[in-house]
Amino acid sequence: MALKVLVCGGGCAGPALAFWLAQTGHQVTVVERFPALRATGAQIDLRSQGIEVAKRMGLLDTIRSKLVDEDGVAIVDSQGKIHATFMANRTGKGAQSLTSEYEIMRGDFVRVLYDATKDNVKYIFGKSVEHFEQDEKGVYVNFSDGSSDTYDILVGADGQGSRIRKAILSPDSPNPCFSLGAHMAYWFIPREEQDSNIRRTYGCSGGRMIMRRTHNSTETQVYFTLRDSNPELASIHRASVEHQKEFWAQRYRDAGWETERFLEGMKTTKNWYCQEVIQVRTDTWSKGRIVLLGDAAYCASPLSGMGTTGALVGAYILAGEICRNPDDLALAFSNYDTTLRPFVDEFQNINTRLIRLATPESEWGVALIRFMAWLACLLHIPQLLARFKSENKGGLLVPDYPELL
Ligand SMILES: Cc1cc2nc3c(=O)[nH]c(=O)nc-3n(C[C@H](O)[C@H](O)[C@H](O)COP(=O)(O)OP(=O)(O)OC[C@H]3O[C@@H](n4cnc5c(N)ncnc54)[C@H](O)[C@@H]3O)c2cc1C
Ligand SMILES: *[C@@H]1O[C@H](CO)[C@@H](O)[C@H](O)[C@H]1NC(C)=O
Ligand SMILES: *[C@@H]1O[C@H](CO)[C@@H](O)[C@H](O)[C@H]1NC(C)=O
Ligand SMILES: *[C@@H]1O[C@H](CO)[C@@H](O)[C@H](O)[C@H]1NC(C)=O
């Protein structure tokens, strides 16, 4: 039975679901609020089960050809002196340490998914869902351009601030956005000679962290992470870009290392993004014919490194369950929930105490962290941990769905 499916959100999760559903003969439309493919963002990782799903999609070779060459991570001090270096494990075996084996620019990844689906999926840019209603026969959707249509399923893949989620959660349910007490800003600056393919991480006092990494011969990415749980800071992200930049510049001005260069590059960068670090936690992933996917349902935050993997694995399982139970969507969505949730619970389990420990307030605390990194490096701690770590988070073995072949 061919279903008519509307996916709201053309980021990572939406197109990944569309891939499977279109391949199995369903009629899929993706609406994306942005006027064009939103192929921006910094470097993302593909890990563990996400790699397995990409392989089943037949996209692993294409993804591999776009990988960012990052050999490892080095911890530096205010003079740029290296205190510890952790190299990536490139053997393709065992668990990955701090640098994932599959690092790719978000833009490249979004384009890979789009190219793999654009011939079988109808994409509409510059359009979003304005209003919807449902009954046992279908979902009736009104769009931002005044048009309307009827579907069997509406998928909310509209990111961490999902409007579809807001519409299906009951007004008295608790706020699903859980703040991790941190903020991030990232942007691109011109590459300089000293920017190698070993990422630099610099911690400084006041709960601040700076990272620089390079993805090609002309550009370098800068990441600022600020741990500050003052709720008033949430408003920064709604302010104008000019105000946002002012805020970050003022908080980091005295931070040392290459900060002056980073702040200079911030003024003219074309790639600017800043966000509060939040997780989405809700018991409700579906209601009737509406279902949530990716960050809209279970955003894990960039600190987890699992956002993209979560999107791919969730899309695969949701598609599998829909194809297995096309006449019983309630069963399909409930199986999707029970199969995926333990995995989500595990990758959302970020220790906020660890975040606090890693971003100390005092100079003394920062020096201690650098010393511990040096010691860990000397004793090969990450390699030892990797040996005991299972690559399959949450014990989830990617299930087989013969229906998807
Ligand atoms: C511009 C951007 C940059 C990012 N950069 C990074 C990064 O550097 N590192 C990182 O770890 N993660 C980043 N992320 C988040 C990362 O893409 C996700 O965590 C992950 O890939 C899950 O994907 P998703 O499709 O669920 O969400 P997203 O990738 O956020 O995609 C959601 C899509 O829905 C669209 N959308 C939102 N509201 C509506 C609406 N009402 N109607 C229609 N469409 C709508 C958005 O424009 C977006 O294209 C970024 C996200 C975006 C949107
Ligand atoms: C990479 O992982 C494999 C498998 O766990 C291990 O045998 C190897 O020693 C690791 N290499 C490095 C450099 O850590
Ligand atoms: C949605 O569209 C239908 C059909 O065109 C129309 O009757 C209805 O009034 C619209 N609802 C809203 C809230 O715009
Ligand atoms: C480097 O990456 C950016 C996108 O992040 C792109 O616009 C630019 O063309 C790339 N440069 C080279 C030399 O590949």
TrEMBL record:
Residues 4-319 form the FAD-binding domain. The keyword tRNA-binding does not apply. Pfam families: FAD_binding_3 (PF01494). Keywords: FAD, Flavoprotein, Oxidoreductase, Signal. GO terms for molecular function: FAD binding; oxidoreductase activity. The keyword Signal applies. It comes from the Eukaryota. Residues 1-18 form the signal peptide. PANTHER family: MONOOXYGENASE, OXIDOREDUCTASE-RELATED. This is FAD/NAD(P)-binding domain-containing protein. It comes from Penicillium angulare. The lineage of its organism: Eukaryota, Fungi, Dikarya, Ascomycota, Pezizomycotina.
